């Protein structure tokens, strides 16, 4: 069996909208902008999802390029997602709570043809762990800390 990588983060609420998160040796503050009731002390959770997706696609694009002998001179990623906050706010809506869709625009300067870059991006998307979690159902369970394992 292949070795597993397990990621764990721990957060402590500092206010109803702010969570200070410890990720390995890094500290991140998550908050909402003032327009959504926060103090704007950090990115909000959905911005971090977009950031995680952009970061993962950066990694996988460079990895696949290296495997294919393509030199990437520069790469930039713009990730955009829109959602209706009504469900989050407890208001009736037919819309889901999450993004209605996510668009990533990746600008790659490489020693490759446009067709090779398109194929590179397709392969990177297929191998990106974060994209996989967003495109496929991933079981999520929320349990009270200290609850018996059977409650998970």
Explain what the structure shows.
- Helix 1 crosses helix 2 (114-127).
- A 3-stranded antiparallel sheet has the order 1-2-3, with no helix packed on it.
- The model has no long low-confidence stretch (mean pLDDT 94).
- A hairpin with a 2-residue loop joins strand 2 and strand 3 (26-30).
- The longest helix has 23 residues, at 45-67.
- 29% of the residues lie in helices and 24% in strands.
- It has 152 residues and is an alpha+beta fold.
Short description:
This protein has helices spanning 45-67, 114-127, 129-135, and strands at residues 9-13, 19-23, 26-30, 72-82, 101-110.
Specify Rg, calculated over alpha carbons.
Answer: 19 Å
Number of helices: 3
User: Which runs of at least 5 residues are low in confidence (pLDDT < 50)?
Assistant: none
What's the total count of β strands?
5
Kindly report how far apart the N and C termini lie.
24 Å
The description of the largest β-sheet is:
3 strands, antiparallel
Order of SSEs: EEEHEEHH
Please state the structural category: alpha+beta
Mean pLDDT: 94
The largest beta-sheet arranges its strands as 1-2-3
Q: Judging from the principal axes of the Cα atoms, what is the shape?
A: globular
Strand content bin: 15-25%
**Helix fraction bin:** 25-40%
């Amino acid at each position: 069996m292949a070795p597993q990588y397990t990621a764990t983060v721990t957060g402590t609420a500092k206010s109803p909208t702010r969570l200070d998160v410890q990720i390995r040796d890094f500290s991140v503050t998550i908050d909402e902008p003032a327009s959504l009731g926060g103090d704007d002390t950090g990115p909000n959770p959905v911005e971090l999802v977009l950031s995680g997706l952009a970061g993962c696609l950066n990694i996988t694009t460079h990895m696949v390029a290296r495997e294919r002998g393509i030199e990437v001179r520069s790469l930039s990623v713009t990730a955009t997602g829109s959602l209706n906050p009504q469900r989050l706010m407890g208001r009736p809506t037919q819309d889901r709570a999450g993004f209605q869709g996510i668009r990533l625009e990746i600008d790659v300067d490489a020693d490759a043809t446009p067709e090779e870059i398109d194929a590179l991006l397709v392969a990177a998307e297929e191998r990106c762990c974060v994209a996989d979690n967003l495109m496929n159902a991933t079981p999520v369970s929320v349990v009270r800390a200290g609850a018996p394992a059977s409650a998970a």
